[in-house]
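Changelog-adjacent note: as of this version, every example in the card shows the full chain rather than a window. The one below runs 271 residues end to end.
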Amino acid sequence: MKGFLTITVALIAFSVLVFSGMEVLRTHGSNIEIIYKDLASIDELQEMEFDCNAVKPVVYKSVISLEELAADERKEAFVKIVLPSILIAKNDIEKERKELLQIEKKISMGIALKDSELSLLSDLAEKYRSDKIDELLTRLNTHPPSIILAQAALESGWGSSRFFAEGNNIFGTWTFGNSIGIKATGSEARLSRYDSTLQAVEDYLFNINVGWAYEDFRKQRADTSHSLKLIKYLDNYSILREEYVRRLNNIIRSTNLEIYDTCRIDPAFIY
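Full-length structure tokens:
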């Protein structure tokens, strides 16, 4: 469908409750009640219980370096920090994808779209840079948490990098022409600074979903969710190319990251 109408997007109403140093953000349009907080200490992470079938939707506004932890402890702490944001971001994309599939079905049946559906279609076309529904569906998609965790671990040293601690930069994302970015040592280059771990994950997913370098990855993702097959198409993510893919493969296998592919948000926080 081409020539979408440009429709002003209404602001989404939300309410914020603040208690015990945490913000609980309920956003109408999402169906997850998110807990925003600052990470004060490593002890806080180590004391936190983890249930793959009931992951608490905690998003960190600030984090601390995990460098002092032993390898196994660092991995466990890193997953506790990053996985909730991954699941939340994936949920939001999957929700929009379902709505787009419903719109596609109505169009194929010759049913007129509602104003709200036209508005959503226009917004998605602008955001994902395509006015073709089949291409939008290819872009508006997600991939296994094991891949995202592996890339995050590789780029941040399992949460030990300075950019992770100073700017919630989980994926080593660079910024250009941005004076508020984090300056790299011995270089004028800067890395992105994020308001939260969720914002970092959302930016990563957006780049994967629209970047020209990941077109082959997106096509393969539409056919399989097997992480070790998909990572072969992420060679453009790093100048290391095939070596980068080899390292991702090693991380996923050696740390058994695929166990997190079936994790889900605690149903108590879904409405």
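Structural remarks: Residues 14-261 form a domain with the Lysozyme fold (CATH 1.10.530.10).
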